[in-house]
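User: For a benchmark we're assembling, each entry needs the component sequences followed by a predicted structure for the full assembly. Here are entry 17's components. Please fill in the structure.
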Amino acid sequence: MPRFNIFHYLTKRETVRALKRLQSNDDFLLLEGLELFKGMSPGAMLMIMERLVERRYSRGETVFEEGQPGICCFILKEGQVQIFAGQGNGDSKVILANLTRGALFGEIAVTSEHHRMSSAESQENGTVLLSLSMFDLSALEKEFPKDAVHLYKRFNYAIVKEMLVNMSQLQKLKGENARLKEQLSSDEER
Amino acid sequence: MKKDSLLVLVCVVAGIAITGWVVFQAGALLKPVVAAMLAGYIVFPIVRHANRLGIPKSVSIIAMFIFMFALVVYLAVSLIPAVKNELEAVSNPDNAIKVAKSKLISISKAITQELVELGIVKEMAADQIIESISAFILEAAKDTIMQSSKFAKVTALYLLIFFFVLFFCLSDGDRIYHYFMEVMPNAFYENGVFIFGRAAEIFGGYLRGLVIETVILTFISFSLLLVLGEFTSLTVVLAGAIAVILGVTNVIRIVGPIIGTVIGIILLLTVGDTVDAMAIAGVIGVTIIIQILDNAVILPSVMKDQVDIHPVICLVGILAGGEVAGILGMILAIPVIGGAKVVYQVLSVELKRFGSDSATQIVAGG
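Assistant: Structure for entry 17:
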């Protein structure tokens, strides 16, 4: 017969109570529905909920810029965010994605401690983002290591999926570029 | 990015300057508030950990307060009868100074007489030496007694403010953090999160190390003083009081051990009717021993995230802190300088480590 652990019992009871209180919380319902957080333990979910910070952006306001250090990842709660690369200094703006509710972005820089490789801008007034910083992820690693590993695996999966989409787009653009070069050279010959 | 960092640095410096001005103006009332906020910052992880174990936050906070209140009541009930005479002396500082002066002169005479008999000092110079030593120590004793007298009178109010603010820091700690994060402007948000997070990691480790160091030193001092008590007139209560003083004043780098020793000696001189030279020598010896232990063993092992500050800056900071906020200012000077240094370090160095060559290769390689 397993030994009764009072702390385990108290922890579980407190977690269940806290989760019940969160059932009506909009942020919790959003996170629960995301693929990223499926399979996370109740304790880890509670910890993430405690650490989430809500940020509000107006239309045209920058969330982060290309080249900045990546400190936080964001989950879109309300509104719309556009991800793009290259702007100013004569570079043309390349739109990479238009994100809506439930989208996760900014995770590459946060997990690799790298500069931002693209920029993000709010497209609507009242855009609401939920942010998690690298320190929150470190704290999750210390307290719930299995859930942290699970979360990083999901991050990796999302990053790889994004890279595959980008590579496929790149191939298409390469093909388009080659075709246009050919057309240009044949026009010049004429 | 450079422009953003400069803007953040300017905001941080301006924030510190404004805070410093407010502290200077508000003066006495802010001391217990700041002390409570620091205590709350140090103790909050215990409350959070208890919460994770399933103990509701309110229960752990109330339990902690009951414990602290019980400790204060116990100390008051056990110490007041023992130090009744000393409390009367502190409440009448002029009388205390007279008593200290006569005892200092008698002990200086006894020491100088010994030195003359040993042939180390000439008899002619003995009176001059007595006068010089007495005058030097008396000045220090006078300042300390005056400070203690003022402190005793406002202790009740300080304690009330301290516990009131501490209660709200512990119960609303997370909410306070969230509030500051949510009101931070979007343009500074990520840099602000990084500065706060990194500074909290280093500064928090330093503060907690400081508390552990103080507790260990107090315990060691108490043990050594108990042994000393077997050979001198040092009582257990007095040994405990001196041990706490030595442990707490050690927080003030460089000058703290000297202050602690002087206060300990003054306590010894004002308690009892006879001057116990062996006890005084013993207290000085205990201070030397704990300083050696602290620097050689305790500090390197406990203070993993030591904030390395040049001794000259330490001394200037401590003196400035003493001018601004008395003893509390001297205690807080090093953590404040350390905190400012950490913020500067984070802005100028740590933010730049993002995007190192190895990280770029990993990302580019896919």
